[in-house]
Write a structure and sequence with these properties.
6 strands; 10 helices; transport; 17% strand; transmembrane; porin activity; Outer membrane efflux proteins (OEP); two-stranded parallel sheet; alpha+beta; 436 residues; four-stranded antiparallel sheet; transmembrane beta strand
Length: 436
């Protein structure tokens, strides 16, 4: 027996194992934590929520007074002439005139048809809308992280299956070479074994490429260097306890898209209140303290100054505006109606998506059990076939068929787990209930 042929694969797999051990293991919990901290879209949504929170103030609602300071300085140089009532005439070239006024003023709207209170509630609802949007983006991104993570798990398992088939194909090639060397097999058997081994190695290389690209995609979701290397835990745990009725109930309470539609209806109602407020008068208190100084080179008064406190109020009432008030109120009511329709539509969409996804989820759970049984049967069949092949009582074609059946069964079992996990993630995302 050629010990060199057997020794080389052992060294190869030992080196691969050592390299894998040196890699950092990324858990799904770590991946979600990194995404929450680093993902760009989540960061933008968080900042947008902070903007909404910052806008919720009494001043932005128009409830607080406004104080302003002003200063005005006017100067002129003119050629002036004056004829007085008594007929006397005075004239002066390059006459200088200047006036200076400065002071502070205060204005406070004390009544505007309750518009300021509706505006404050409007700002609070916009904050809630920003919070719902942040939750939606987090759910989407965490869902993507989960899907990509378990895709990596599935691909890792596929790599393991391909590694196994290469080991078996290598053993087959070694047996064929040994049998050929003692005259019990033809050269054709050796060539067929070599071709199959090469095919397995090509499949392994393709799978490694897909695995590496998926890791880069995961790094993109985590907003970190695409060159960072890692491995994932090689198991998939599917939650098989989901109940459709519970998911539908959770979606009514937690689905961020539905919550956004409900908030939009509340915003539309507050906009109607603000429009209706224009029917009422607006009363504003005014006050101020002003200083005025003036100088004139020509005239009865060469210098004048004044200072003092002023106060009063302004009241305005819209009497007729070309029926715009009626039109604005009608439009606002139609917008409320549209938001109610949008809520009903979103309810139907969520119920449809949940029902469809749940049926897929149940099917995938059944497929897991079936494919697990198929893998066990295929493994048993391969062990028996391998023993028969070693003693030469089975053809290479039958052996290859059993080998491929086992690899395909293993890959299908892994894919069934992955698809079931995707269904679970989709259901929890629709229900707004992904744990992170």
């Amino acid at each position: 027996m050629n010990t060199k042929i057997l020794f080389s694969p052992l060294v190869f797999f030992f080196l691969c194992f050592t390299s894998a051990q040196a890699q950092v293991t990324l858990t799904i919990e770590d991946a979600m934590t990194i995404a929450l901290e680093n993902n760009f879209e989540i960061k933008i949504a968080k900042n947008n929520l902070k903007i909404s929170e910052t806008n919720v103030t009494f001043g932005n609602s128009g409830m607080l007074p406004k104080a302003t300071a002003s200063i005005v300085d006017n100067n002129s140089i003119q050629n002036s002439s004056q004829i007085r009532q008594d007929g006397t005439e005075t004239a002066l070239n390059n006459a200088k005139n200047n006036s200076l006024s400065y002071g502070v003023s205060l204005g406070w709207t004390i009544f505007d048809g309750m518009k300021m209170f509706a505006r404050h509630d409007h700002l609070q609802e916009l904050q809630k809308l920003g919070d719902a949007e942040l939750k939606r983006i987090i759910l989407v991104k965490i869902g993507q992280v989960n899907s990509t993570y378990y895709d990596l798990v599935q691909q890792q398992q596929a790599l393991s299956a391909l590694d196994t088939t290469i080991v078996i194909s290598t053993q087959r090639l070694t047996l064929a070479q040994n049998r050929f060397s003692i005259g019990k097999a033809s050269k054709l058997e050796v060539l067929n074994a070599q071709v199959d081994l090469n095919s397995d190695q090509v499949a392994l290389l393709r799978q490694k490429e897909l695995y590496a690209n998926t890791k880069i995609l995961m790094n993109q979701h985590l907003a970190r260097d695409p060159k960072i290397d890692y491995k994932v835990f090689d198991n998939v745990t599917v939650d098989s306890s989901l109940v459709l009725a519970n998911l539908l109930d959770l979606a009514q309470k937690q689905n961020p898209v539905l919550q956004s539609q409900i908030i939009n209806k509340r915003i539309a109602e507050l906009q109607l209140k603000q429009v209706r407020a224009d029917r009422y008068p607006v009363v504003t208190l005014t006050s101020g303290y002003n200083f005025n100084e003036s100088q004139s080179s020509l005239g009865f008064t060469s210098e004048a100054s004044s200072r003092g406190f002023n106060y009063g109020f302004n009241a305005t009432l819209n009497i007729f505006d070309g029926f715009n008030q009626h039109r604005n109120e009608k439009v606002a009511k139609l917008q409320i109606e549209n938001t109610q329709i949008a809520i009903e539509q979103q309810n139907m969409v969520i119920n449809t998506q949940l029902s469809t996804a749940f049926q897929t989820y149940l099917t995938n759970l059944e497929l897991i059990q079936l494919e697990e049984s198929n893998e066990a049967i295929a493994k048993q069949n391969l062990d028996i076939t391998l023993d028969k092949f070693k003693i030469g009582t089975i053809t290479t074609i039958d052996f290859r068929t059993a080998q491929l059946n086992y690899v395909n069964a293993k890959v299908r079992y892994s894919n069934a787990q992955f698809q079931a996990k995707l269904s679970e993630i989709a259901l929890k995302e629709l229900a707004g209930n992904i744990n992170f």
